[in-house]
Amino acid sequence: MDWDKLRIFHAVADAGSLTHAGDVLHLSQSAVSRQVRSLEESLDVTLFHRHARGLILTEQGELLFDATKSMVKRLESTAARIRDSEDEIFGELRVTTATGFGTLWLAPRLPKLYAKYPGLKIHLMLEERVLDLPMREADVAIRMKEPNQADLIRRRLMNIRMRLYATPEYLAQSGPIDVIEDFSQHRLICQNTAAAQVAAGASLTQKILAYDIPSLLTVNNYFGVLQGVLSHLGIGVLPDYLTEDFPNLVRVLPEVESGEVPVFLAYPEELRTSKRVAVFRDFVTEEIFAYRKQQRELELVKS
Fold first, then answer.
1. pLDDT-based confidence at 47, cuts 50/70/90?
2. DSSP 8-class letter at 249
3. Exposed site from 92, 143, 222, 226, fewest CB < 10 Å?
4. Are 29 and 18 in contact (CB under 8 A)?
């Protein structure tokens, strides 16, 4: 099979449109269409069902698209390894993590990494869905549980817990909360227990919701929960790593917390020698070390 035709087929299948694929490939729609038809003729199959709304892959087209996706991922991986053979650290690094951790912990620390390696192009993919690292949907993942995919290098970074926080302004206005039953006088801010989140957070929220809570605000990520808390709307269920960057938050009901949630960094075995992955891994490890040290110092002060 002609690789150039396969490349064009892949772009069309990925875009679902001859026009959009032509824009990506910098080719006219007619040129893209000719190449796809030529590939279909050479294989003696129909690869697309053609509709007014666009193109839909046939069963044979799906099989070929699966193959071209693997080929493209391998080529991207090879290109990355070639770039990493240079001494200079540059190029794109695709990092996936949960929305809360990415926005509240990771992103605020990235200026330090860019200061050391200005040639890096970090693409943050913040979502609760676990991306497939071996298939190169991302280069590095930071997740709130140990990855179970094969052929991954993984490192446990730290443990976190979900706890209850509020602002001094909210507590001054709404009154203290001494026992969990006092939630009948307060508003809870949390994720819906059916939303994608760590199991420990959902379990803690469910436990609190079992009490009589007259007012509730649910948000589908911890960034939104934090904004609600900072706006003095109520008491929020939040991860404890926020205490470093938001020291004015007051912990409420210290005896109420989730179980430990492990945080793992993982990347594909084939990126073991990647310099971009190495500098990102070392940067995150150093930041975690500094965070742990500060937490220990705070605990000593409190004791």
1. very high
2. P
3. 92
4. yes
